[in-house]
Predict the 3D structure of the following.
Amino acid sequence: MSDNIKITLRYQPGINDTQADYILDLLNPVLEGAKVHEKHNHPPYKHIYITPRNKGNATK
């Protein structure tokens, strides 16, 4: 069983930018070292994906 959690934020650019930045600032200390990437492939929404990295296990 995996103990990782994946977080997805969906927001409308120009309307919820400050809220998305605020949430990322809150999560940053908790999920240090997490992989964060943004996609804009489902207009009018932007998606931010946050995935914690494995601390003890090396990836292939």
In short: Residues 7-51 form one domain. The chain is about 20% helix and 35% strand. The radius of gyration is 13 Å.
